[in-house]
Batch of 2 targets.
Target 1
Amino acid sequence: RHILLINGPNLNLLGTREPATYGSTTLADVESAAQEQATALSAKLSTFQSNHEGAIVDRIQAARGDVDAIIINAGAYTHTSVAIRDALLGVEIPFVELHVSNVHAREEFRRHSYLCDKAAAVICGMGVYGYTAALEFVVKHLKIKAR
Ligand code: DQA
């Protein structure tokens, strides 16, 4: 199984940005822990981070026919991007929407997601453990289509 982990805008600052909300673990820590976990689960993991909406769309498009499931923390684009939603639907790859913080306990505008109604699962409020939970879920429990 080939899993793609996408982190969107400002998640390159994970661990240093608003630590009271997002914790002190860096994105590099998250990605290396996820690589180890994937190896232990006999899965292949690719990771991608971008602050640019179009670059995220391009990466999702490139995943078609190559990736079995996507885990995406789209950051603020979750709340704004029809383009990322359309890309995910266009490639027909099942995905998990993830947020480190509990978006429902914050500003009202974070409660709306352009992705959640199409996601296989939504994880929020677990801190960076959400990445561990998402990877375990997609490898062990998600029904993945033949490609
Ligand atoms: C986030 C929540 C979003 O509302 C915010 O814009 C982010 C991070 C999270 O991981 O909690 O950048 O996706």
Target 2
Amino acid sequence: MPHPAMSPNNVAVITGGASGIGLAAATRFTAIGMRVCIADIGADRLAEAAAQLASVAKGGAADVMTASVDVSRFDDLANLEAAVQKRFGGTDILMNNAGIGPDSNSFGPLENWQRILAVNLWGVIHGTQAFAPHMVERGRPGLIINTGSKQGITTPPGNPAYNVSKAGVKAQTEALQHELRNIPGCGITAHLMIPGHVFTALTARGRTEKPPGAWTAEQTVDFMIARIEAGDFYILCPDNDVPRPLDERRMLWAAGDIVENRPALSR
Ligand code: NAI
């Protein structure tokens, strides 16, 4: 059953929406007739992304808003929320998705840690604080989707700042889901989107062809939408990197069961 927040004319705001998974989500939402705002620091890619959205819109006229934002700055998100409210009347879906993954090391440099945490973790916190109160006040069904990572759960070696940032996103999303559930009558649910290996600008590292086993951003978003409609809180995308088969209802990793995939929807 389609989720009520994913309905024609509803409004989706997607950070990191000019590329990869964010753009794929914006494309799917536009294709079902939603009004979409893509917010990204890559101002040069926003116009091209908006043209892509126009090409999939029903009737060819997408109601697309583009915004040049840096999610590490709370004021950018607060201004974005006000601008979306002015143009579209409010937000039904917030996808806190912007992310970066430069190399990091526990011994430094500190600047890499500060930037990765500022974008990947503070970006999610900023987006939530700027949008969630208004979404709740609106009193409509809504979705807050935060893009985490398997690396925030399994902590593979190689990029500790990224691992820490995504572990923080997981904890923040779980906390938010508890908080939303405790608001009487609130129809907004939070979801932790955990992509597998997705072939995007972030992971291409000079490759021009999708490596075997990686998913496309579009496959990832289709899976995400299906799992949200099934009521999952954790949207756990499988891929070849996963060491053993996944139980769809639970988070099963090499370390064993971590946490139940609680049904997320209160509708
Ligand atoms: P991407 O590089 O194609 O897209 C990320 C977008 O975020 C870019 O358009 C970039 O300009 C934007 N961005 C970066 N810093 C920003 C900032 N400060 N403010 C606003 N926008 C900013 O990469 P992809 O793969 O689509 O990544 C999306 C999310 O998925 C990220 O959070 C990433 O960590 C996560 N992810 C991706 C995986 C993959 O295999 N591609 C695996 C696990 C998680």
